[in-house]
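pinging the channel bc i need a second pair of eyes. not urgent but kinda urgent?? the chain im working w is below, pasted from the shared doc
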Amino acid sequence: MNAGDTIAAIATPPGEGAIALIRLSGPDTPAIIQKIFKPAGKPPAPRIATLGTIHDSGEPLDEVLTTTFRAPSSFTGEDVAEIACHGGMLLAAQILKLVLRHGARAAEPGEFSQRAFINGKMDLTRAEAVMDIIRARTPLALRAAALQLEGRLGDGILALRDQVLSTVAHLEAWIDFPEEDIDPASGMALLDQIQSMLDGIDSLLATADEGRVLREGVRVAIVGLPNAGKSSLLNRLLGMERAIVSDIPGTTRDTIEETACLHGILFRLTDTAGLRETSDPVEKEGVARTTRALQQADLVLHVIDATLPAEPPSHAEREILVANKADLLTLESSIPVRAIRVSSRTGEGFEHLVNAMLETAGLSHLTASPTLAAINSRHQALLEKAASALRHATTLLESNSPAELAAVELRAALDALGQIVGSTDTEDILGEIFSRFCIGK
């Protein structure tokens, strides 16, 4: 990538639609627009959508609305233009081709957002939030991403970094200028400062699982004996007939995976083959896949037939015992006390089941939380690195080791926190983050 180039891309998804958007950013943007766009009235003014026609070699291509943004008051911090034409893959592609012919080059994935970061329009946490907003599949995930885009996470990280910076600067000043009678803030005062930083980092790290759940969802395995009603349970949770339901045991031979948004949380539901001994090679493979689904699951719904004698209890972690076919119960039926009674046919007990799923997964508080933490795996790794360095600094100070060694550890913590927001970025970090973006963003 060359930051001095003018880049262009189609910023809307492929396919037919009412409108398609072509975006340009870079120093040649005004000149390109002037060459290809003829306004119907006054020339385009910044931030005002202007009606006009796109021309190619004097021939009109389409009537469009063009909006320009002058640097630095734009998303990327550069001169930007957005051409809104009629939707359609061919038309948008022709306008993009025209723009490229007049001096722009095709943008790489995430290059617009990367330029916004490079030009100081956002830090890395906000840049990552842009993609989280695009990919959000539940209201809670969208709210968490919006809060991150607003700067909640970045501001918190910067506040922690400022604390570390202040501490290491004071310590290094004491080391470098002993004649200045600088208070080293040693002993309990310095240790208390470091502990305060550790508490802030630990509070963010405690939300790592929540961040993963908001982005990826809760992995749920639906297991049980054949004909217990697992597929019926899946269909009821999804609100549609996704899995084949039959009275014949062993109907489900393979795992069926679908997603459902329940109380704002994404659940990745996996209907599995019935667990039983079998000589059928196809069904045996289905049982093997059930075992793998169990190993990968965050939550297990163990489905039993409420009309049959109770099965031996299972003590698997994060497991909910679901007694299905509750509408067929007789007085002689025996159900374990801890089981949740449901009927996939009538919907009885399903609100109770969903609440139990949220509680067992430790997510009940998220649905009412006004501020959602959404740290991702990159943030988690760097926060753990910073916490480790701070703990090493504490150990060195408590053992009366040379202050220079503690300062080195504080510097390492400072660097790790800086990498989260991008204040000490490297090409590798930027390449990894922005390569996951879509074209045009």
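so The chain has three domains: 7-122, 127-207+375-422, 216-368. and Confidence is low (pLDDT under 50) at residues 248-253. — does that match what u expected or am i reading it wrong
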